[in-house]
Automatic annotation (TrEMBL):
One of its GO terms (molecular function) is dGTPase activity. GO terms for cellular component: nucleus. The lineage of its organism: Eukaryota, Fungi, Fungi incertae sedis, Mucoromycota, Glomeromycotina. GO terms for biological process: dGTP catabolic process. It comes from Glomus cerebriforme. InterPro entries: dGTPase-like (IPR050135), HD/PDEase_dom (IPR003607), HD_assoc_2 (IPR045509), HD_domain (IPR006674). This is HD domain-containing protein. Residues 66-200 form the HD domain. It comes from the Eukaryota.
Amino acid sequence: MTLVNDITNFTNGYKQIKRIQDPIHGLMEFEDWIVKFIDTEHFQRLRNIKQLGNTYYVYPGASHNRFEHCLGVAHLAYSLVKRIHETQPELEHIEKDLKCVTLAALCHDLGHGPFSHLFENDFISRKRPEEKWTHEKGSKMMFEHLLNNNQVDIIDDLDTKDIKYIEKLIAGDRTQRSPYLFDIVANKRNSIDVDKFDYLDRDCHYLGIKSVFDSSRLMKFSRVVDDQITYYFKESYNIYELFHTRYSLHKKAYNHRVCKAIDYMIRDALLEADSVFEISDSINDANRYLKMDDTILNKIEFSDDPNLKKSKEIIKRIRTRNLYKFVDEYLVPNELKDKLTEKEINEEKIIAYQDNDGLKIDDVIVHRLTLNYGMKDENPVDHVKFYDKYTPNKVFKLERSQVSYLVPEQFEELNIRIFTKDREKVKPIRDCFQKLLKEYISEPKTYYTEI
């Protein structure tokens, strides 16, 4: 990524512009006030957190980091708000809105921990379940710490209300101040936002996966009506492609069987090392959290502390590709979702069917993988408003039948996947899982036959 400083002459004086060459968005320009945020240790920390965590172990091209993703989201947010201000001057614009939304976009992922979502979903949720911690909470903590501890005056003309507004934009907690801006960074109305625009384009690029979703076109055909961002109705199928691309990436890449196996290995390595490095305590201490990134694995690996023996053994297994093993899976029909709950399908229930195989609960991992279009079992397009160019200020909804009869009828699926830590126990665990499934279905299919 190339950084070039440039001085551009404006009517109100000189403004320093930093130009960054990005493989996804081309030449991105950032004014001096946002560069001050970029050049803090809080934001630079994101250089050492991979955007897709352990997906890199399966897709070697997926080595991009949260750093460039956040730059891309900030660039898109700035571009979209500026375009709205220019094309819809009749809207009431608060002068600071552009700066607030851009900062929210830039800082929305400051709270991600080592290996991105693994830290939040697998490690903290297991080690500190009472915290109900999310990376959004972490972003709020780090953003406030950045403002309170940075020696450079980076706040400029932003007051306390503006800071709280930025935090609400990051969290997606809608307020009365310019409500449509909450559709830009973290859109809880219909899940269409510039965060997705960037990570879908960026992840597809680095994964080597083709996508037909066109984010730039969708941005150009957007406008604000009734305090929300709406879209030209001919972009409806493009929006379906957005959600289908998201689903496909989760299905094929983010939750790849080998990626998930390595997730569980790194989770176990972090759990074993927590007493030494106090990793889980860092979520409540911004100074310590600053030191938490993907390099934690190297710190464990190269430490001489004897208490890290088990953790180092797990890491060595990753290095030598002696991974936890995928066992079997079952794609749950809708009519069985209420029956095949965590209470009915778990590690203890599975090994109860063993026949003197020496299985222990710790040998088995049950992964309940829920995939959807971003709004659980709802169709997110049902929450999108459209306009016609002939009546641009009148919005309407589109039924699925008005778009295509080939778009999905179901928008969420549950897949129960079984892994084992001991590769020698794949067959007996699979047999146990199949016996357990027969309590609910007559002939469960085995989806995976390799031992």
